[in-house]
Amino acid sequence: MVSDWRVPEYLRSLRGRNFRLYFFGQSVSLLGSWIQQVALVWLVYRLTGSAALLGVTTFVSLAPQLFLGPLAGAWIDRQDKRRWLIGVQALLAVQALVLAVLTATGLIGPVMIIAMSFLLGVLGSFDAPLRHTLISAYVEDRADLPNALALNSMLVNGGRFFGPPIAGLLLGLTSEAACFALNALSFTALVFAVLRAEGKMPEPARGSVGHVFKEGARYVWDTWFVRILIGVVAAVNITASSYATLLPILAKDIFLGDAQTLGWLWGAAGAGAFLGTVVLVGTRSLPRLSQGVVGAVALSALALGVVASSTSLAPAFAGLAVLGFGITVCNAGINMLLQSCTPETLRGRVVAFFMATRFGFDAIGGLIGGLLAALLGVQATLWIEGAVLSVCLVFLFLHRQRLGAAIEH
Fold first, then answer.
1. Is 257 helix (H, G, I), strand (E, B) or coil?
2. What residues form the membrane-spanning segments (predicted)?
3. What is d(CA 261, CA 255) in angstroms, rounded to the nearest whole number?
4. Per-residue pLDDT at 51 exceeds 80
5. Which among 160, 164, 202, 352 is least buried, having the fewest CB atoms inside 10 angstroms?
6. Rounded Cα distance, 49 and 51, in Å
7. CA–CA dist 349, 343 (Å, integer)
8. 114-125 average pLDDT score
9. CA-to-CA distance for 194 and 20, rounded, in angstroms?
10. In which element (H, E) is residue 123 found?
11. Average pLDDT for residues 336-343, to the nearest whole number?
């Protein structure tokens, strides 16, 4: 039932009580996750000063989603998604709490950081598809689904905007362990929301995990526009998204800053990302959204060059804001297109392929970026990534009209 809670038209999916609960539960959980992410990369660089280890840590925290994500999606489509989301959130809380204890007691080290990051990646392989596929279960009106997906993306990027500066402040006042403990507590918000909300859960898929996986993989490969959009996600995240791995190096070595500098740099990217989601919230035309994705790839390539050439904080802030905007419009826009155009019975698997590509290629990009930064320097690495993304842009620009037509039909 739709409530009479009055909201502006561009927030229309929040009129329903169930999605509103889910939305606010996720907002707290995602904010805690961003605080932990910033604290973890700062901990790695503070303890080791190694750009390569930053890349390795990012890789092991995201790579499981590349290899496990598609299979996790097939498995999830056969399960009670609500129950499993609660279980995964509980396990993520335990992971954050263990990380807090190890850090507070001084037992943390490179090997343990990598192990805990890998565990986070495995849990994330199930968490991300679960959270995204359940959005449709809590949206009463199917026409409001794109709006709900855009608002969900706004949450992610709102966390990216507010989380890093908060993390920088907390790191200055307390410690990394306190940030990890705060994240452990934040997972209870989403668990509470899921327990209170009343959603219409999709029917589980029938057949073995292998059969369900093959059915989803066949759809992704045989559907031209889905294949192209997944390819764009891979290109953007193996290049532009790796900036997150390089930010501690920029903050400490290029701009001679501290944890608060890192927080502000990350916050600049988050501000641009948040603006990108604001733009997406008002988008109704899917073919127009596909053209916006092409423009977002162009902005991302341009912004990499701006950040690479920056020798002071002001142009770096501007470049990171544009980069955050471009990456977000690309990733969130493609997620909206895929979920809006995919049959209900296949949505969980398509979302899993999207998430696997989004985070898996982010992991590969982070590893490559960290290794290249150790060999060539952080600024040269950003220039190379911008050049590679520009090649993808040329291909996408040449096929932009066919892409829009395919999505429209």
1. coil
2. 21-45, 51-76, 97-123, 166-195, 224-251, 263-281, 293-310, 316-338, 350-374, 380-398
3. 8
4. no
5. 202
6. 7
7. 10
8. 90
9. 11
10. helix 110-133
11. 84
Phi/psi for 201 (5° steps) reads -70, 135
Residue matched to tokens 């409530």: 3
Q: What is the DSSP string of 27-39?
A: HHHHHHHHHHHHH
Q: Model confidence over 237-260: pLDDT tens digits?
A: 999 988 888 888 888 888 888 878
Whether 296 and 384 have beta carbons less than 8 Å apart is answered as no
Interatomic CA distance for residues 44 and 171, integer angstroms: 13
Is-contact 328 157, C-beta < 8 A?
A: yes
CA distance 267 to 212: 40
Report how far residue 37's alpha carbon sits from residue 25's, in angstroms, rounded to the nearest whole number: 19
Mean pLDDT of 44-49: 84
CB contact at 8 A, 308 and 254: no
- DSSP string across 161-194: HHHHHHHHHHHHHS-HHHHHHHHHHHHHHHHHHH
Whether residue 31 has pLDDT greater than 70: yes
- pTM for this model (two decimals): 0.74
Judge whether 199 and 18 are in contact, CB under 8 Å: yes
- 345, 205 in Cβ contact below 8 A? yes
* CATH number belonging to the domain at 9-408, selected among 2.40.110.10, 3.40.50.300, 3.40.50.1380, 1.20.1250.20: 1.20.1250.20
Per-position b or e across 335-360, b if 16+ CB within 10 A of its CB: bbbbbebbeebbbbbbbbbbbbbbbb
| Distance (Å, whole) CA 247 – CA 37 | 12
Share of the chain above pLDDT 90, in %: 32
Mean pLDDT of 152-161: 75
Domain boundaries, the chain: 9-408
Closest CA relative to residue 334, chosen from 375, 284, 289, 276: 289
pLDDT at 3 over 60: no
Grouping H, G, I as helix, E, B as strand and the rest as coil, residue 2 is: strand
**Contact indicator for 154, 13 with CB cutoff of 8 Å:** no
Query: What whole-number distance in Å separates Cα of residue 315 and Cα of residue 310?
Result: 6
- Coil, strand or helix: which one is 128? helix
Residue 309 has φ and ψ, to the nearest 5°, of -90, 0
**In the structure, what pLDDT confidence band is assigned to residue 176 with cuts at 50, 70 and 90?**
very high
Q: Which residues, other chains included, contact 145 with Cβ-Cβ below 8 Å and sequence gap of 6+?
A: 13, 135, 136, 139, 339, 340
* pLDDT class of 61 with cuts at 50, 70, 90: confident
